[in-house]
């Protein structure tokens, strides 16, 4: 009688644990730092884990997908473009000291042209300009 009660309680505890994990969704548990992403490529690992939940427990699996999509945790993190394609190109970066010259967009474009020989347009929609701390190197 005691063994049967223990097995019943263990089964209920296991079922509740599985349901809680499915309801909170895999992506939200594994990658909480991804919350807030709006779109992107779907992470196959999270999608497969949510689908396994869908196979075993239909309603919690649907909820897991809904939570992951609404939180944005089902999407792979966005990647940023680098200056060039290879990792060795990062060593080729150099700082340009400009002294007391005002750093307006046109001055920056001119400095880049002088040092690289390439024209850039900082007003282009695919360019992001960010002000950095003025720490000395």
Explain the overall architecture.
The chain is rod-shaped, with a radius of gyration of 26 Å. The protein has 137 residues and is mainly α. It folds into 2 domains: 2-71, no CATH class; 81-130, no CATH class. The chain has helices at 2-24, 26-30, 44-56, 58-71, 105-116. It contains 5 helices and no strands.
User: Helicity level, as a percent range?
Assistant: 40-55%
Query: How many DSSP E strands?
Result: 0
Beta-strand fraction estimate: under 5%
Low-confidence stretches: 81-86
The string of secondary-structure elements, in order, is HHHHH
| Main sheet attributes: strand count, strand direction, barrel closure | none
Shape: rod-shaped
Number of domains: 2
SSE layout and pairings?
Layout: H1 2-24, H2 26-30, H3 44-56, H4 58-71, H5 105-116
Helix pairs in contact: 1-4, 3-4
What labels would you give this structure?
137 residues, mainly alpha
Short account of what is shown:
The protein is mostly helical. It has two domains: 2-71, no CATH class; 81-130, no CATH class.
């Amino acid at each position: 009688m005691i063994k049967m009660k223990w097995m019943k309680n263990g089964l209920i505890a296991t079922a509740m644990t599985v349901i809680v994990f499915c309801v909170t969704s895999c992506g939200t548990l594994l990658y909480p730092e991804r919350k807030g992403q709006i779109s992107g490529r779907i992470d196959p690992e999270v999608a497969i884990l949510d689908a396994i939940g869908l196979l075993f427990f239909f309603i919690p699996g649907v909820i897991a997908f809904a939570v992951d999509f609404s939180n944005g945790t089902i999407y792979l993190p966005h990647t940023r473009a680098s200056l060039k394609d290879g990792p060795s190109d990062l060593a080729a970066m150099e700082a340009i000291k400009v002294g007391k010259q005002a750093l307006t967009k046109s001055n920056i474009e001119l400095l880049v042209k002088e040092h690289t020989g390439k024209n850039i347009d900082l007003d282009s929609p695919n360019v992001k300009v960010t002000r950095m701390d003025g720490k000395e190197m």
